[in-house]
Queue: 4 jobs
Job 1
Amino acid sequence: MIRVLIVDDEAPIREWVEYCILREKERFSVVGLASSGEEALKLIKKEMPEVVVADISMPGMDGLELMKRAKEIAPFTAFIVMTNYAEFSYAKQAITYGAKEYLLKSEMCAGDLIGALDKINENKEKIVKHKVRELLPSGFIDLFGLYQCQTPEAMNEFLDTIGVEAGKGGQVLCIRRGKGEIEADQLIELVEKENLAKLFLASRQEYDFIIAQDNRKQKLEEAMGKIGRGIGEKYEKAVGISAFFSDRTALIHALRQAVEAENHLFFHEGERVLIYCEKTGPSGLSREAVRAAYQQILWNLAHKQYEETLSQMRQWFETIEKVGLPDSQWAIERCQRMVIAVEEQYYHLDPLGEDQAKGGQHLLTMGACRRRCEELIQKLYDKKNGPYSESVDRALAYIHENYNRDISLVDVASHIYRSPEYFSRLFKDEVGENFSVYLMMCRLNHGRDLLIHTDRKIADIATAVGYSTQSYFSRLYKKYMGKTPDEERNQAKQ
C-alpha cells in the first residue's frame, strides 16, 4: 500500500485530493494533510510517506523548496506536484527537484491523480533500487585504515574519504563471514526498501558491516532491525547491531558494539538478531573460577566418574551463561574447548564410536555445545553399565509393555528422555536391530503365543498385537516366521 501526504494551502483542494485517494483505499492511504511547506516537512520526517502530492505555489515555503528540503531527509519519497500555472519553467524546476508527475489544477480529474499514483507505484521498486545503489557502493570498504588513525584529524580525514558524514547519527550492523558468505549485491537487495539517508558496506577481519547514517533515531533503529531480521531469516546468519551513535567519531565504538552483539547471540539459541545493550558480568564470577571448574570436569571425565561429570558440566554451562558481554568471546572459546575436550576423551576411550569428532568450532550456540557434551558423556555412562545401558533397558521394558499400541521411535525416545536420533543409534548398537524391526518381531512373537495357546480369531490376534488388519499381520507373519498364521496354529494342534 502506498502512503500519501497531501500538501496545499487551500483546504478544498486538500479535501478533494484526500477524497479521490480514499476511494482507492485498498491501494493507497493518506498519512496526513498539511497546509504549508513547513508543516509538510515535519510530517515527512515523522511519517516517511512514499508519495507527497504538493502544490507548487504556497506562501512561505513553496512546493519546490519543500521538494529540495525533503530530498535531504527522505531521498526515496516521490513527489506529484500541482499548480495553477501551465508554464514550462515550473515543470522543468519540479522535474529537476525529482517530481515524478506534474498536474495542472485547472485540468486534472480524479483519474489523472490516481493514474499518477499508479505510475509511481509501478516504478517504485525500480526507483528505490536506483537511489539505494547511488547511496550504497557495490562493494565493501576496508576499515583497516580507521584503526590506524592516531589523531582526531587523521580519523576525520579517513571518515571523509569513505563517506561517513559529520553531524549525522548512525548505527552499525555486523555479520560474521564464513560458510554461506553474503555478496554485496545480496545485502543491497535487503536494504533498498529502507528509506535511509546514508548507507555503505564495510569489512574488517572476519566481519562484514552495514553502516547507516540517519538522524531519525527511531526510523533508523526500526530499519536496521528489519534488515537484520531479513539477513537472519534469508541467509541463516547471526546479526549484531550496535546502539545508536550521535556522532561519527563514535564509529569505532559502534563497530565493537555490533561485534559484541553478534558474539553474544551464542548464548541466545533460536535468535538471529541482537541489538547491543550495556551489560556487566555478575559479581563474584571470575575466569579463574570457570577454569578451575573446567579442570575438575576433565579430571572426573578421565577417571570415568560420568555421573559427577554430567552434573558438574551442566552447572558449568549455567555459570558460563552468566558471563556478560565484555567477556563474550572468551566464554564462546571456552565452551567450544569443552566440546573438543569431551570429544577427545570419548574417542580415546571409544575409538570405534559411530560419530566422528568435529571439534567445537562448528557449534554456533552454547546450547549446541552443551547438548554435544551431554550426548557423549551419556554414551560413555551407558557403555560403562552394559550389557544393555540403563537407557536401552528402559526402552525395551516400554516396548514390551506397549507393543500392542501404535508406538513409534519418537515415543520411546521421549519416554527415556533422549533425542530420537541418539536413541536410534544407541538401540541399533546395543540390540543389533533397528527399532522398527525389533518392534515388529516383538509383535509377531506375541502373536505366535496367542496362535498356539488360545482359540482367538486371527483377526482378533492381529489387533491384540498392534496391527489394524488381519491381512497385514498375516503377510508379515508369513514373511518373517516362515508360515501363515493358520499353518502355525494347525501345526501346534498336531
Note: DSSP finds 20 helices and eleven strands in the chain.
Job 2
Amino acid sequence: MKILLVDDEREEREGISYLIQKFKYPLEIIQAASGKEALEILSNQKIDILFTDVKMPVMSGLELARVVRETDKTMKIIIFSAYAEFEYAKQAIEMNALRYLLKPIEIDEFKELMDDVLSSLEETQRLDQKELLFKLFSGTKLDKISKESIEKTFFCNSNVGYRFLNVEFLTNYFEENEEYFLELSKRYLGSKTEYIGLYPNESYLLLMDFEMNKSKFFNEQITKMMAAIQRHTIDKCIIFISPMFFNLDDMEECLQKTDKMKTEIFGYENKIVEVDDSDAKTEHYVSDIETAANEVLSAIDSKNPDIISKKSYQLVQTINISSKVSKLYVQNILYTIIKSMYDKLPGIEMEEVLISAESLFKARDSKTILEEYETIVAKIIIAFKSNDNEADIILRIKKIVEREYMRDISLDYIAKQVHLAPAYVSFIFKQETGQSLIKYITDIKMSKARKFLQDNDMKIIQVGKACGYENQSYFNRLFKNYHGVTPKQYREQL
C-alpha cells in the first residue's frame, strides 16, 4: 500500500514519514511538495492514502482533495493544518476526508488514526479480492495480476492446505436463508471460512482452517451440517467437497474436476459428494424417464397441444424424482423431443431448434435445464395452438384465482388445475394479459385485502389469513409495497 505525503514544508513531510516508519506501518511513502506535483504522481500511481496539508501555494490541500474525489471515491484522505478554523474542518468532512488533524500532530492521535485507516483499507482490499474469488468460482478467466492478488490475500501460506465446498440447492435457498447457512458453516467448519454467494441456489465455502481440513472429523462435520440443513428446510441439497489444495493453480484444477462431476449428476438427493472419490460413477435410472419421454413423443404424433403440455409436465416431474441420472443423458432426451416437435409440428423454424439446443446444453444445473425445456415447449406449442383455446385457458385460470384467492396459490398449483406445464401456463398468461400470473394473483389478493380492511369487524391478522398469507409480517410488507401504507394505516385513513 502507498501513502502520499503532500506539504510545501519538507520538515513536515519528513516528520510524518518518521512516524510511519517508527510504528512500522506497511506503507510505501511518496512525497510531494505541492498540489500540482501530487496530481502528477496520482496520475501515474495507485495511491491508497492521501495525507495533505491545507495551506499550500497555488493549490490548497482542500482543492487537491476536491480534484481527487472527482475521480476516486474510495481513496482515504487525511487533512492536516495549523489552522483550526471550523470552516476547514467542515470542508474536509464534505470531501469525505477521514480525519482533520491539527499541527503539531499528537503522536497518540496520529497512531489511532493510522490504525483505523489501515484496518479500513485491509477490509476494503479483502472485499475486492473476494469479488475476484467470486469471478473465479463462477468460471471467469482471471488475468495474472488478479490471480496474484487472490494468492496474496487468501493463499499467503503455501504450507497450508485448503478445501472448498460447492453447495447447491434445488430452489433459491440462499435468497432467504443465507444468514442461517453462514451460521451453520461457522458452527461446523470453524471461523476460518470464506463464503462466496454465487447464485440464489448455489454458493461456495473456502475452508482455510488447515487443522480442520486434514482432520479425520472433517467429513463428520460436513455430515452434521447437512443434517442441520435438512432439519431446517425440505429443499434438496447436494454438497461437493474438493480435495485439499495448496495454491490457486491446484484450486482451479479442483474446480474443473467439480464441474465435470456436476455434469454427471443430474438430480438432487441431499447427497455429499467427494470430488476425488474414485468410485463416483454416473448412475442411470432411465426406465421411468424413457417411458415418460415416449409418451411425450406419442403426444406429438397426435398433434394435440394440451396433451403434449400435460405429458411434458409429467416427464419433468419424472426426471425430478429420479434418484440420480446423467445430466448429459437428460439433455439428449429433451433435445430429441424438441427435434421431434420441429419435424412433426407446423410453424417451427430449425434455427429456433438450434438455439433451444444451445440453451439446454449450456445450462449449469438440473433446475435450469428443466426450466429451459419447459419454456421451449411452451414457445413451440404457442406457434400452432389457437388463440381461442388460449383465451379459454386464461378464463379458467382467472376463475380459479377468484375462487381460491384465500389459498397460497402458486404457479405449480394453477398448472395442475388446468393440466398444463407451469412454463406454458406462465407464457400464455403473460402473452394474453400483459402481466405475469404471479402479479395477477397478488393483485387479486390485495384487492380482496382492501375490501376486508373496510370491514372493521375483521382484525388485520384475520385479513392476511383470509387472503392466503399465514405470515403476517410478509402480508404487511406486501400490502405496503402495493398501496404505499400498511394495512393499519390504510384502515385509519378510511
Note: The radius of gyration is 31 Å.
Job 3
Amino acid sequence: MSEKTHTAGKNGKFGSRLGFILASVGSAVGMGNIWMFPYRVGQYGGAAFLLVYFGFIFLFGMVGLSGEFAFGRLTGTGPIGSYGYALKSRGRRGGGVLGAIPLIGSLGIAIGYAIIVGWVLRYLFGSLSGVMMGMEAEVYFSQATGHFGSVPWHFMVVVITMVVLVGGVLKGIEKVNRIMMPAFFILFVIIAVRVFFLDGALAGYEYLLIPRWELLLKPETWVMAMGQAFFSLSITGSGMIIYGSYLDKKEDIPKAAMTTALLDTVAALLAGFAIIPAVFAFQMDPASGPPLMFITLPKVFAQIPAGRWVAVLFFLSVLFAGITSLVNMFEVCAEAVQTHLHFDRKKAVLLVGCLVFLIGLFIEYEPYMGSWMDMITIYVVPFGAVLCAIMIYWVLGINRIGEELNTGRKKPVGKLFCFAAKYIYVGLAVLVFIMSIVYKGIGYEKIKETPKPAFVGTGVSFIGTYFTAPVSFTVSLSYFVPKILSPASPRPGQM
C-alpha cells in the first residue's frame, strides 16, 4: 500500500513547533472559552469542577488530540483522505464517505461561527465609535442579530479569513496565529488586571475558586466537565487532523498536544478571571450564556471608568479568538476542495468563503442561526468525533498510529497510553455523543440554553444508564471490528 499523496507540499508546512502549537491553540480557543467555561466553573462547583475538568483535559489532550495530530501527519491529508487511508489499511473502501461527515461538521460550524464573529466585529467598531456605549445593550444586540442585521460585518469576517488562508500554512495560518494568539493572551491579562480592582470583584473570584465538593455527587457536573474539555480542544475529527498533516516528522506530537491543551486551559481561565469578577462587581447574572458577552458585559463596560476602551480591548481579543478558529474550519474545507476537486489554492479558498457567506446570509437572524448551530454541534460534530476515534484506534490500529506517535519522540508511548486510547477514550467519545443528544449540547456554545433533563434515581442508575452504552460499545468493537475488517491477507495496523 502506497502512502497517499497530499496537499501539504502545495500548501507548505508549519515552520516551527511554536507556530504549530499557536495555530492549534488558535483553533481550540473560541467563544466557548469566553462565554461558556467561566459560568460552568461557578455553576458546577468552582475548584471542584476544575479538578474534574483538568482530569478530562489531560486524558483528551494526551490520547484524543495526539491521535488526531498523528493521524493527519501519517496520512498527510484531511478527514476524507485520512479515513480512506485507514479503511484501505484493512483492505476496505468507503472511508472517504465517512470522512465527509466531520468535513460537513466543520463547514456547518464555520457558517454559524462566521455570523457570530461578525457580531463581535460589529461590537468592536461600536466600542471604538462609542455607538455601542450610547445605546441600550438589548437594543444594540437585537439590531445585530435581526434579519440581515450584520451583513457587512459578516462579509468582512469571511474576507479576512480568506485573505489569511490564501497565504498558505507558513505565510498565512502560522503568521497570523503568531500575532493574534499572543495578543489574545496579553489583552485578556490587561482586562483581568483592570477587573481585579473593581469593588465587589472578590465575589466573582469566590464563585470561580471556592470548591463546592457536594456538586461532585451530581452526574451533571461530570457530564459538563467532560463535554467542555472534549470540545474545548477542538477534537472534531477534522480540524486537528489537517493541522497535523502540515507538521514535520521531527516534532513530538504528544508533547505538542499537551502544550496545546495547557494553553487552551490558560485561555479559558483568563477569560473567567476577566469576565466573572466584573459581572459580580455590578451584580449581574454570570450564567446568561451568549448574552453574557453581548448584553451583560456591555452594561458592565458602560459603568467602568474608561469602560469604552476596556470594551475595545475585550472585543478585539475575542475577534482574534474567533478568526483563528475560523481559519482552521476554512482550511479543512479548502484542503478537501484542493485535494479531491483539484482546485488551486485561491479558487478553493474562494469557493469555501462563498459557501460560508451565502448560506450564512440567510440564517443571520438569531433564532435561525441558533437552530442551525444546535443541529451541527449536537449531532454532526460529536458523531464525527466518534468516527475519528474509532478510525484511529480501532480501524487503523494502535500499533500503526503508535508508530507515528513515537516518531520524533524520545520516549515511546507505553501500554497505559494504548489501553487508555483504545478503550477509555473511545468509550468516552461515544458517551460524549450520547450526552450531547440527551442534554441538547454539552460542549459547544449555545445561543439559547435549553432545559436540561431531570435525572431520576441515584448515582447507580446514572452509571447503569449512561455508562453501560459506551462501555458495551467499546467491548463490542474489540470483538466485531477485527472480524468485519479482516481480509484474507495480512493487514497493517493490526493489534
Note: The chain is about 75% helix and 0% strand.
Job 4
Amino acid sequence: MPHIFINTNRSLGTIDPNIYGQFSEHLGRCIYQGIYVGESAEIPNINGMRCDVVKALKALHIPVLRWPGGCFADTYHWRDGIGPQAQRKTIVNTNWGGVSEDNSFGTHEFMELTRQLGCEAYFSGNVGSGTVQEFSDWVEYCNMGGVSPMASLRRENGREAPFNVKYWGIGNEAWGCGGNMRAEYYADLCRQYSTYLRSYSPDHKIYKIASGANVDDYHWTRTVLERAGHVIDAVSLHYYTLPHQDWQHKGSATEFTESEYYTTLHKTLRMEELVENHSRIIRQFAGGRKIGLAVDEWGTWYDVEPGTNPGFLYQQNTMRDALVAAINLNIFNNHCDTVCMANIAQMVNVLQAMILTEGSKMVLTPTYHVFALYAAHQGAQQLESYAETSILRHDEEAVPTLHVSASRAADGKILITVANLDAAHPAQAQALLGGVKAAAVNGTVLCGTADARNTFTAPNAVQPKALSAVLTADGFTAALPACSVAAFTVTPQ
C-alpha cells in the first residue's frame, strides 16, 4: 500500500497565492471572443466581458493575471489601445495568425477585467520593439496619482484614480521572440529599463520581473542575476510540456498512446529539476535580497485541433492535462520558498486553457477543475509531504505512482492534494499525519480515462465527485482511482 507522509511540524513557508496565476495573451480567441465580446454583443456581458467566463474564473479565486503577452507584448504599443475605441488604430497580430485587431481591448479594458475578477494585474512591457520612454510612460499612466502628463491623459480617458498596477515584466522571452538577445545584452537593458520604472506612491511599490530563461538556460539566469539582480524583484522561467520535442509535430491533444501519456508526465516532472536549479542560482546571486522565481508561462503544448487556425494554438484538454496541472502545482507548492508566481498558459481557448468557448457556449476543462480543487492552497502554510510509492516504468521513462503536496490554512484545516499517475490501476493509499490527529476528512476526486474530456456536446463528462476516506489512528486511507487528482481536507482534533 502506498504511503503519504505529512509532517505538520515542518514548512518552507507560505504558498504565495500568485502561484495560481493565469495568463491571457492577444492570441487566437483568448481575449476576443473568449473573454471580451464588446458591450453590444448578444452574449451576456458586463462592460464587454463575458458574464459566463468571468463567473467561472471568479470561482477559482484567481490572484493575478498576466497580459498582453507573450510574444505579442513585444510588438504591443500601449497608446494604440487607449482613448475612444472608434479612434484606436487597427493593428496586425504578426506573431499569431496575422489577423487584424481593432485594439478595442486595451489598458482600461484589461483593468476592468481584473476588477471583475478581483485579481492583480501583471503587465508585460515592450522591450523588444519599444523604448524606455514608452514603458516608463505606461507605468506613469497607470500609477501616477498626482499631476503629470500621463496622469492627465488617463483622466482624459475617463479614469481619475490611478490603477496602481503592481507587477511589471521587463520584456518577454528576450532570448527569442522578445528580441533574440544575448543574456549580457538583455541584462544591461534590464538595468536601464528598471531605472525608469518608478513607484509613484510609497503605498504602491511596483514589483519588477526580469525576462528569464528558456527551460535549462542556466547561463541566462546567472548572467541576469549577476548583472541586474540588484534592480529586480523576480526573474521568470518558461517551460512547456511537449510529448515530442519536435515543435512541428508535438503530438495530438486527444489521440495519444499509453506511451505518449507517460512521456508527457515524465517530461512535466522535469519542472522540479528546473525550479531547483534556477532557484539555486538565484540564491547564489541574490546577495541577501529576496528575489523570486516567476514561472509565468507553463503548461502543455500540442498540435492544434484539426481544422483550426494554426496560429491560434487552440487545443483540447483531457485528464492527461489535469495530471500535468496537478504535478506542476504540487511542485510550485513544495518550492514556495522561491516560486513567487506562476501563470499557466493560457486562460481561455489557448493551449492548456481553463475554459473553452464556441460562440455563446462555454465548457470547463479538466484543468479548470484541478485549479478549483487546489484553490485552498493559496496563502496557506506549506507542509512537508512525501509519497512512498512505486515507480511506473514505460519504455525508458519512469514516473512515480503518486505525486503530492499539502498545506495548512489559517483555520487549521489541512489540504492534501494527490495525483495518481497510473493510467490503469487504482491505488489504495494510506495518509500518515505527523503532529496532528484527524477528527474528520472529506475527499473530492477528478478522474477518468487519460483521454477523457469535456466537449460542447458533453460538457460534464469530467466532473469532480465525492471520494470517501476512512479515518485511522495515524491519519486516513482512501482508494485513489486510476488517472485521478484528489483533494482531501482534514479537520484536526
Note: The domain at 16-379 is CATH 3.20.20.80 (TIM Barrel).
